[in-house]
Amino acid sequence: MPTSRRNSLPMASSWSPPENRKRFNLPSKKGRSMKALLSLLVFSLVAAAGHLADAAPVKVFILCGQSNMEGKGAVKHLEQLLADPTTAKEYQHLRNDNGWVERDDVFIKYNDDRGQGKLGLGYGTPTDRFGPELGFGHVVGEAFDEKVLIIKCAWGGRALAVKFRPPSSGKGDFTQRDRATKEIVPLPEETYGEAYRDTIRIVKESLANIDQLVPGYDQEEGYELSGFVFFQGFNDIIDAKKMDQYGENLANLVRDVRKDLAAPNMLFVIGELGQQGVEPEKRYAEKHFKFRKIQEDVSKLPEFKGTVGFVKTSPYVIGDGDSFDGGYHYYGRADTFYKIGSAFGDTMVELVKSQN
């Protein structure tokens, strides 16, 4: 829900003989004053209407997850796609005669120290990569008249069972090997929920300083926490115990984020862990299908009806093409990452519009 509360041209003169002047029914001085007043009123109303159209709450979207949300889409591959006549049209809006396009209506803040500014390239990890924010930002930027702020919180290698662990899930009981003694010891208590807490903190700090992130920010109109995208799962699927807890932890994540950001109806999009494509490698297939079902089932919980969506990412995997990141991170392909981000955006737009 929104946090906000809310010339006339001179007439040309002409001379006419005295005998002809009586033919004209000239308005009185009082009549001319009323006409000018009405003109001024109409002009003011039109100007006010234009201001109201421009001054609307900024739509804020949070993109959160681990390395795939950080973004591994290779800019090098995007350049190849633009140079290929068979694919150039799909991505031509991303570059013009002056270089890579930066949107004037969509802005981004990435972690504490990964940059901020107009949405464009440069917000992946490393900076010659991009993530779902690019496709997502273009979709929501085209869909809404309001300005958009994307707050991206993403760190590689974070499990939902541990570092993204939401408060309602309580402390976990996982272990690690002590580097000095080589013994198996419990994980430090502060490890649990570390990335979750960082996400909430970064979002709150960004909103407190939103006027520094969104040019021309209108304090009276404020902002609206419009949605949250969670794209994560690799560090949970590789551990059976973490995987078994995933559904409960994911549902708690939705509940806790809404509570901690005081946005009880904030919309959520869950991104499928679809790394191996529609047909995973046979020896991993059962595990991948099980994990994907866990993710989708959370989106179908009765309490989340109409406010939580699920996006399949596996259809965008191209396993028999060039790879730009070995066998990891959706092969680092620019087309895959852009389409995944666009799919997140399409689903988010549907959810937003369904609330109106």
TrEMBL record:
The keyword Transmembrane does not apply. Keywords: Hydrolase. Residues 58-288 form the Sialate O-acetylesterase domain. It comes from the Bacteria. Signal peptide: none annotated. One of its GO terms (molecular function) is hydrolase activity, acting on ester bonds. The keyword Hydrolase applies. Residues 1-17 have a biased composition (Polar residues). Pfam families: SASA. Residues 1-28 are annotated as: Disordered. This is Sialate O-acetylesterase.
